[in-house]
Amino acid sequence: MKRVIIASTSTLYNGGYLEYLKPTLTDFFKDVKQLIFVPFARPGGISHDEYTEKVAGFFADLNIAVKGLHEFENKIEAIENAQAIFTGGGNTFVLVSMLYKFNLLDAIQNAVENGTPYLGSSAGSNICGLTMGTTNDMPIMYPPNFRTLGLVSFNLNPHYLDPIEGSTHMGETRETRIKEFHHYNPQSVLGLREGSWLEVLGDKITLKGELPARLFQQGKEPIELETGSDLSELK
Amino acid sequence: MKRVIIASTSTLYNGGYLEYLKPTLTDFFKDVKQLIFVPFARPGGISHDEYTEKVAGFFADLNIAVKGLHEFENKIEAIENAQAIFTGGGNTFVLVSMLYKFNLLDAIQNAVENGTPYLGSSAGSNICGLTMGTTNDMPIMYPPNFRTLGLVSFNLNPHYLDPIEGSTHMGETRETRIKEFHHYNPQSVLGLREGSWLEVLGDKITLKGELPARLFQQGKEPIELETGSDLSELK
C-alpha cells in the first residue's frame, strides 16, 4: 500500500528540525530500521554529507539509521532496496536536476507504489506533485523537465504564504502566482501552510496538522480546506 | 550606442504605472515616435491586447505611439525596424518561453547593440542579465533555456526584498536564495530594490534612483552600492 507524508516544511519557527512531526513519524516509520535520505536539494548550499548528518541526528531518536543516497554508487538499486525514503528540502530546481541526472524519478515512483514509505518536506514535497511548476524556489539550475513524481494527482505549494497585510512590496503575492499558473496548467494546486502535511495511505489523501490549507482550482475562486479534509478525489 | 534602462519595478506602492520613471523616460525616449511593446510576460494573466493598451496609456502622455509585438506576423522584422523596445513585467518563465518560441533573443540583442533604446521592467529587466536564474517568479512554463539577453555581464534580481524583520515564515530569504545561486553559477547578481534602475549608455552602467542596491558576488559577503555607483566593470 502506498504510504506517503508530504510536509510543508521541515521546521516550524522556534522549533527543532522535524520536531513537530515526531509523533507522526514515530508511528509512520515504526517498522523501519534504515532510511535512505535524498540530500540533493542542499538548503543553503550545505554539503550532502552535512545534510545527511543533520537528518541522522533526528532519526537516531527514532532508532532509525540514515544513509545518504549520494553515498551509493548504484543509486537506483539503493532506492529499490530502501526500507523507507526521505527527501529533504532546499532548492527544487537543484533537486529535480539531480533526480533526472541519476534517472531516479521512475525508481522512486515505483518504490512508493510498491509500498516503500516516503517522507517529503518542502522541496521533497514539491516533487510529490505532477510537476514542480508551483515551487517557490529560485531557478538556480536548469532541469531537463519540470515533471515530477506525481504521487498525488495535483500540484503542491509548500510554505504557502498568505498576503502580508500592509506590505508595500509590489512583487506578486503567492496567490497571484498560483492564479497565473492556472492560465497555462489545468491541475489543482494545494497551498500547504507551514505546520500542515498530507497523509497518503493507499488511495486516501488526508490533510493533517492544525491549520487549514488553501486550494486553487483552474477557473474557480480559491477555497480554505479544514484539517482532516479528504483530498483523495482531487485532480 | 547601446542605450538601456533596467528598472526593478514598473510601479511603486501608491504610484501610477511607470510614474516614478516619467522624467527619465521623457528624456530617454525623446526622439522616439513609436515604440514596440513586448507584452509576453502577461502579469496576472492579462491578455496581450489589454497589457499593450495599459502601456499605450502611459506613453500617450509622452507622444509615443505603442504597438504590441504580438500584433506583428513577422516579429523579428518588427524588432529590427523598431525605434524603441519596452519589455514589461509579469512572469519571466512565460516571457522567456515566448522569446525562444519566436526566436527573438538574438533579434533584440542585435537591435540593442545597434542602438535601439530598450526599457525593461521587472521580468523585462530580468532578461537583460546573462540568465533568468535569479528571477523571483514561479516556473509556470518550461522555457527551452534559461539564457537571456546578456545586455549586462551579470544577473539581475528585480523587486529585491530585504529580510522581513520579525517574520516567522521559514521559507528562504531572498539573500539565501541568491547565495544558493552562487553555489552553481559564477556571475554577480545585483539586487535592485523597487524604485532603483540601471542606466546603460554604451559601456557605462550606472545605478539610478534613490535607494542603494545590494550586490552579491560569488565567495564574497554582499555589499550595498550607493545610487550613482558605476557598474561598468561588474561581471
TrEMBL record, chains A, B:
GO annotation, biological process: proteolysis
Family annotation (InterPro entries): Class_I_gatase-like (IPR029062), Peptidase_S51 (IPR005320)
Key words of the record: Hydrolase, Protease, Serine protease
Domain of life: Bacteria
Membrane spanning stretches: none
Protein family: Belongs to the peptidase S51 family.
Protein name from the UniProt record: Dipeptidase E
Organism from which the protein derives: Flavobacterium urocaniciphilum
